[in-house]
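Reviewer 2 asked us to include a model.

Predict the structure of this chain.
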Amino acid sequence: LLSGSINNDMLGIVLSFAAILYALRWYQNPTRKSILLLALWIGLSMMAKSSGILAAPAVAFLFLRKFLKAKDSRLIFWKQFGLFLAVSIPLGLWWSIYCKIRFGMPIGAVTGLQPDNPQYLGHDSPIQRLFGMDWHHLSVFENWNWQDGVFEYNLWIALLKTALFDEAELFVSGPGLIFSQMLFGVNALLAAGMLLCIILSVVYAWRKKAPIKTCQAGFRPFTLFFTVLFVTYLLFYIGFCFREPYACTQNFRYIVPTLLPTAAAQGAVLKHNRLQPSQKSKVLTWTITLLSTAFCILSAFVYLLAGCSTAL
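Predicted model (structure tokens):
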């Protein structure tokens, strides 16, 4: 669904993915070419969408770790960091600075809605936004429904809804609705499993237990890199939802790059469980495998049915 969006979302996402990839490549092989490509991708991602800067804290973590480890070649890294800033800052900020000078538009400005808009959620308390459950809202699988006056206010439920169905009402009855309900439930369980995998991968990294010995050197920094990336996007999402308390700000499209840390954590945990099997690890492995398989099958049914119904 997101790939069909005619806006800057997909461009910003693909450029952020490229920046993350080249951050890892630079850490493995810190050449001038790799850091220039990293600067290019992160600068372009910021130009496409200001949220592209959210990859910066994780990249800065890799920079700092590499710098502290290289006691005899720090001058080389100072030069590389200078090149990075010289390329990424002009690319990432020139448009915002131009709009500030030319039109007086604040840097990082967001098009505002008014509190009288039906999407306004400012009347809900932070406790409700974070932990409140409304079973009527769970009965529909769109983030909001103007006709029925349903506007999802729970940040986490909204993520699960928009990750699968964006803001669309794909089905109102029939097999499509049944498969959508099943997919929503499987996705919720899978998301819980992914969070568990992130926690376990951090524990493995802290204890220096790489899934395989050959990746020991890179496992800990890469795990911490992905953890910083995940936490940065998650904190941004929470802050954004409270700063702009409208239903439309509760959308998974703002934190799509969190898919990378969750996928990496799942892979690390499954690899660890396969090489060091135990009763508990087998249960976790089979649970994640079955949920992932069910997710793929149900996704195929839901989106094929949605496409067929649209074509008809």
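Residues 115-312 form one domain. The mean pLDDT is 87. We have added this to the supplementary material.
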